[in-house]
Design goal:
By secondary structure, this protein is α/β, with parallel strands linked by helices. Helices cover about 55% and strands about 20% of the residues. The protein has five helices and five strands. A three-stranded parallel β-sheet has the order 1-3-5. A two-stranded parallel ribbon has the order 2-4. The protein is globular, with a radius of gyration of 12 Å.
Amino acid sequence: MERVDVKIADRFGTHLSSRSRAAELRAQLELESRPTRTELDFHGVVLVSTSFADELIGVLSQERGLNWLRDHVGVRGASDEVLQVLLEAIAGRTGRAA
């Protein structure tokens, strides 16, 4: 499986709070992740709002399922705080931890 790296801070900034920006990234992931694995690089990201995380990761986990998410999307370089917000978005949509 090929891998695509997405540097979140370079593309979307260091403070992520817009549902529309998250939806844009989610649409890209859904298109690119069919034959590939997308690594979301959160190095340099200071803040991820609950709404951004929900629109990006929460919606993917609900629509595609946790197995698809694990197989096609990776997260690296996230601070503990950012990672916690992402995990809470998954739990909020699926009722279980990732």
